[in-house]
């Protein structure tokens, strides 16, 4: 049995526009005060069983401090540049965790699981008139996620490295309401992990989506 977690959130933000509103910036600073935050951790199995199993446990007190900023710049009607960044400084307090071998580890002051310090993306798109009825577009984005751990014990095998992926897109929009395009996601076919956990004597990892191509089409009524 675990307790229901409780979160008190403090946040202040601002919106900014400049250069005849071609540049727009949204920003916020936040502080999350958790009580009994629920996290997955390991716990030794009682005799005569052996090994460890994963359980949901309560961290008595933990905090997340951070900020996020997103911006959009449209210097001309043909070009748009967007970007966003998020920073997280998480911390568990007054808590000891077991690692995957059943050894107790002091977790006070360590980052919360799956809480990368930095993440962000940059996206650019250019649009060009083909004629009075058709508009072509080409765009791309770069996406970054910082490293993190999958549990409070911060075991090396539970480390999730940082990764960067690149997406591209190309298509046509029509004033009649239809659009069609092609896209490529993770075009460099970057291998990365989104999660990791121990099951029995093995560590398992979930892989991120590999290189993916597709076609998109739509109609706006």
- Trace the largest sheet across and list its strands: 1-2-3-4-7-8-11-12-15
The overall pLDDT average reads: 92
Helix/strand/pairing category: mainly beta
Helix content: under 10%
Brief digest:
The chain is an all-beta fold.
Report on this model:
By secondary structure, this protein is mostly beta strands. Helix content is 0%, strand content 68%. It has a 9-stranded antiparallel β-sheet with strand order 1-2-3-4-7-8-11-12-15, with no helix packed on it. A two-stranded antiparallel sheet has the order 5-6. A two-stranded antiparallel ribbon has the order 9-10. Strand 11 (163-174) and strand 12 (178-185) form a beta hairpin. The chain is elongated.
Characteristics of this structure?
single chain; 221 residues; mainly beta; 9-stranded antiparallel sheet; 68% strand
Describe the secondary structure blueprint for this structure.
Layout: E1 6-18, E2 23-44, E3 52-76, E4 79-93, E5 96-98, E6 104-106, E7 118-129, E8 134-145, E9 148-149, E10 159-160, E11 163-174, E12 178-185, E13 193-199, E14 202-207, E15 212-219
Antiparallel strand pairs: 1-2, 2-3, 3-4, 4-7, 5-6, 7-8, 8-11, 9-10, 11-12, 12-15, 13-14
